[in-house]
Amino acid sequence: MTNEEIKAFLDAHAEPRYAAFSASLVPGERRMRGVRLPVLRELARGIARGDWRAYLSEAADDTFEEIMLQGFVTGLARMPFEEQMERMAAYVRKVDNWSLCDSPATGFRFVRKHREEAWRLLQPYLRAGGEFDQRFGWVMSLAHFVTDDFVDRVLEACRSVRPSGFYAMMGKAWAVSVCFAKYPARTRPLLSGGWLDDGTQNRAIQKIVDSFRVAGEDKAYVRTLRRAGIGKG
Question: What are the structural domain ranges in the chain?
């Protein structure tokens, strides 16, 4: 599809009310047409089955949806792992809000076939000074690396890496909560040992308490670890 065809497709599926609602959840975002994510994903699947390299080489960055679409295509298209990691990095350079980060990152399942190499290449993101670069590292970690073989590495990153801004901190808290939901015994020392800053600690606890995957006794335990005087998030 050409850029003109893509723009026409997005215009045909735009919902102004949904655009206003979505923009209210993404501070500073003013480029939304209001196309729902399932529609974007279906469009991405069609592009990924065709000449997706030509599409990515010419794709426009004019709107939120056009940028998001590039992330979805990057995750869906079949290509060598090294090329896919390079194209992923090119996409991340365009990310300037949590939504453009999270939805494509959780879909970058290609890293699961090369976790060792992918984990090494993700370290600069986890330790980045940029807020959304680091959030990307946390979301990739929680989506693809909270496994028997990698959860301890994720927890070590949670212990050692300070968040670079609010949205990075929220991504880190989310990662802690996912680790706890799947590996509560391994995650308890992180929460009880004073390793986390107050904001991350309390927001991770709130996510754990809100989770349907965590047992009641575990929720009761983590509530005792909430830091006094800090908002719940």
Answer: 1-78, 85-233
